[in-house]
Amino acid sequence: MATATLTSKGQMTLPKSVRDELKIGPGDKIDFVKKDGEYVLKPRTARIADLVRVLGIPPVARALTVEEMDKAIEDELAEDDERIRAGR
């Protein structure tokens, strides 16, 4: 069993064995989830919204329809085909 000590500032250092098992490091977020009267530590995984923000992709006002997705794929394939035929 791993043990951590709480400081006067309410901070603790997670033991290396726990950090290694959770695959977490400096700057990673950890959620404390209450379950059956106990807390479980869960590393926070990146959400799609976080990745979109980091990549600088502007938010979409609405979801695309299947037809719009099909058209976008068709357009990309046509561009690829044109590029390949032109030898680029």
TrEMBL record:
This is Looped-hinge helix DNA binding domain-containing protein, AbrB family. PROSITE patterns: SPOVT_ABRB. Residues 1-46 form the SpoVT-AbrB domain. SMART domains: SpoVT_AbrB. It comes from the Bacteria. Keywords: DNA-binding. Pfam families: MazE_antitoxin. The keyword Iron does not apply. It comes from Devosia enhydra. One of its GO terms (molecular function) is DNA binding. InterPro entries: SpoVT-AbrB_dom (IPR007159), SpoVT-AbrB_sf (IPR037914).
